[in-house]
Amino acid sequence: MGSIERMLRTDRSLLHVEPPLWEALPHELAFDSYGVPLPSNIKAHFAREGLLFEEDALELVTRCASIMKRESTLLRVQGSAVICGDLHGQFFDLLKLFELGGEPGEQQYIFLGDYVDRGSFGVEVVLLFMAYKICHPGHFFLIRGNHESRHLTSYFNFKREVEYKYSLELYEEIMSAFDCLPLACLLNSSFLCVHGGLSPEIRHLEDIDLIHRFREPPSSGPMCDLLWSDPIPEYTEEATLSGPLFSPNTIRGCSYSYSHEAVCRFLEANGLLGLIRGHEAQTEGYHLYANTSMGVPATVCVFSAPNYCDTYNNRAAFIYLDGDVMKIRQYNSSSHPYYLPNFINAFTWSFPFMVTKMCELWSKIIGTSNESDPLVPVLTFEERMTKSAKKK
């Protein structure tokens, strides 16, 4: 065996690729004899690119929706918790998060929304989360992000993903479940956890409970602001002394940008220590904004999708909060299977390329044939058709 052949056989980044599972997970492995989901089996099956039977997926969605429907719009949670930011369909990075943060059931979790879109495994994230929520309803909490909506999931790729892997019916049931998601979480009466941020129409925590959440997010108003607002770009104590508390969010095209002063006033009015949010990619996975008068960051942004969209090369992070002690854990991206854009198959994707190349090849063959015999005239298409008609 030559050195080149030996190199081609051994010097590979992956010597073996596990084939994907094409069959659905049997019902008796997805649920126990009492009908309780088995998240560990579901997680392992999804890690092999397996699916669930559609009726089992629908059962997870409808049962989880009924649990979330009974929750208040502002969750009130006590105890230590792991707080996680945007995931955007990056299921294989979620596995790393659970490996580092602890298995749900052993650890309390709060997720800040944006579970789907952009990544190719949003339906796996959603169904696994729903299995955990059914098993641990009092220790596994999900709130809504701006991408948990019909508008954005149709514009981006989640709707296509669910139709490709399951059906339009399942997609519509997931959207109905998203309408049941709470909008914010109050942790230990000290930290407000939300996807986007504050609203000029929300001055007190009780205002959040008054929001009618069981609907598609509107384009304005307090519900929109909780999902869409951002800190102003120049978020510092000095920059906001003379500026407005809220200004139009020109980057998003909706909602507001809020200043450091706006956050400090809200925290003081409600007896809180800080605001914890997601919604924005961060190079290091998190960002600590300007401190309050108590010397702690008024706002903390956490982002849990490493190497976002396979292009950002960012780290991810999650927050572990125990009382008023905050620890931040960073992690890098994990390898994952590849899907072609918009979940198209290889033949559809490659067909235009093949047609172009075959036309180029045929053109060169015809051209070479004519050039090899200078006595053969080069006829136009019309001349060839006329000549053929005369022969008939």
From TrEMBL:
Q: Which UniProt keywords apply?
A: Hydrolase
Matching PANTHER family:
SERINE/THREONINE-PROTEIN PHOSPHATASE 2B CATALYTIC SUBUNIT 1-RELATED
One Pfam family of this chain: Metallophos
Q: Which PROSITE patterns match?
A: SER_THR_PHOSPHATASE
Protein name, please? Serine/threonine-protein phosphatase
Q: What class of enzyme is it?
A: hydrolase
- InterPro entries given for it? Calcineurin-like_PHP, Metallo-depent_PP-like, PP2B, Ser/Thr-sp_prot-phosphatase
The answer on whether this UniProt entry bears the keyword Transcription reads: no
| SMART domains to which the protein is assigned, alphabetical | PP2Ac (SM00156)
Family, according to the entry, reads as follows: Belongs to the PPP phosphatase family.
Please write the reaction equations for the catalytic activity of this protein: O-phospho-L-threonyl-[protein] + H2O = L-threonyl-[protein] + phosphate
Molecular function as annotated in GO: calmodulin-dependent protein phosphatase activity
Q: Which residues form the Serine/threonine specific protein phosphatases domain?
A: 143-148
Q: Could you tell me the Gene Ontology terms of the biological process aspect for this record?
A: calcineurin-mediated signaling
Recorded coiled-coil stretches? none
Q: Which organism is it from?
A: Trypanosoma rangeli SC58
Q: Which domain of life is it from?
A: Eukaryota
Kindly indicate whether the keyword Hydrolase belongs to this entry: yes
Q: What is the E.C. number?
A: 3.1.3.16
